[in-house]
């Protein structure tokens, strides 16, 4: 009788612990698959298109890091080397991808003219005058 209770108790404990192990293992497996799916493809910019490469090359020619004969209109090894030298001389990272500070210093970043900063207030004023024309008089 005692061995029967012991066997029954052991079987009960074993049967209760197996589903918990299986559920934990299944959940871990599904989380791993989600993680793998999320990081499966390349992210970010893969290459620089020819139009942008031409702009960068023109700026590098203007600053003396590239000659006019070296400007090919493509993001080639000569252009990459010139950009790396430019970035290195300015104390920035020298990866193959241009640093945003280098792009800005070459004059190819966002425009910083004064009309852009005044544009929202002038558009508000013009919107107010258009809105006033619809009011009953």
Describe the structure.
- The chain has about 140 residues and is an all-alpha fold.
- It has a domain at about 50-105.
- Helices cover about 65% and strands about 0% of the residues.
- The protein has helices at about 1-40, 50-65, 75-90, 100-105, 115-135.
- Helix 2 (about 50-65) crosses helix 3 (about 75-90).
- It starts with a helix and ends with a helix.
- This is Peptidoglycan binding-like domain-containing protein.
The main sheet comes to: none
Number of strands: 0
The percent range for helix content is 55-70%
- One letter per element, helices H and strands E, the order comes to HHHHH
Shape: rod-shaped
Tally of individual helices: 5
Structural class: mainly alpha
Share of residues in strands: under 5%
Gap between N and C termini, in Å? 102 Å
Weakly predicted, low-confidence segments: 121-134
Indicate the mean pLDDT.
Answer: 73
**What's the Cα radius of gyration?**
32 Å
Topology of helices and strands:
Layout: H1 2-38, H2 50-63, H3 77-89, H4 100-105, H5 114-133
Helix pairs in contact: 2-3
What is shown here, in short?
With 137 residues, the chain is mostly helical. It is 66% helix and 0% strand. Helix 2 (50-63) crosses helix 3.
Top keywords for this entry?
PGBDSf; 137 residues; signal; PGBD-like_sf; Peptidoglycan binding-like domain-containing protein; Peptidoglycan-bd-like; single chain; mainly alpha
């Amino acid at each position: 009788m005692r061995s029967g209770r012991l066997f029954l108790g052991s079987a009960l404990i074993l049967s209760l612990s197996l589903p918990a192990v299986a559920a934990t293992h299944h959940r871990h497996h599904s989380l791993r698959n989600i993680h793998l799916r999320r990081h499966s493809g390349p992210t970010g910019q893969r290459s620089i298109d020819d139009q942008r490469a031409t702009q960068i090359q023109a700026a590098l020619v203007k600053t003396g890091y590239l000659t006019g004969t070296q400007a090919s209109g493509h993001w080639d090894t000569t252009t990459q080397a010139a950009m790396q030298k430019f970035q290195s001389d300015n104390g920035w990272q020298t990866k193959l991808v241009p640093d945003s500070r280098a792009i800005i210093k070459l004059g190819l970043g966002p425009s910083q003219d004064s009309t852009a900063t005044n544009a929202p207030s002038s558009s508000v004023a013009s919107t107010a005058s258009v809105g006033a024309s619809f009011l009953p008089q």
